[in-house]
């Protein structure tokens, strides 16, 4: 599944990041292959993941942004057995290995705000081995360049991306994909 996402991102590097039903409806019709579910609720999560799969797209759940769901091993097992997304997004390094052991594709979300957070992020990658990393905010090409120089994990840029030019620049410096909640950028 990890290789499937890598292949899809090579062909279509835009990832729809959705926060509500309207955003999901737009993403389902957009020419994207992967959707990040943000701000979901436990009672609608399974339905949303099924809709994404029915449209032939990959569903990723940000585990910390699901209201009503813990952020622990039991929650990951519930996600795998009951919801069955392609993978999870998390800011918690401790969840990465557990999710991988369950067969979920893992995306470690890292906030790179300064050189210290860059070094911390690199240590997290080396010790927890996520399948992908999402660097936030994604509008900092220098952070993408630095991460790429020091690790082999595919990088997704996300956060504060507002223009086609920013997407092009992020892909140019080495991001394999770009996640954005701006629907007008999903059909680039």
From TrEMBL:
SUPFAM superfamilies: GlpP-like. Coiled coil: none annotated. One of its GO terms (biological process) is regulation of DNA-templated transcription. Transmembrane segments: none annotated. PANTHER family: GLYCEROL UPTAKE OPERON ANTITERMINATOR REGULATORY PROTEIN. This is Glycerol uptake operon antiterminator. It comes from Hydrogenispora ethanolica.
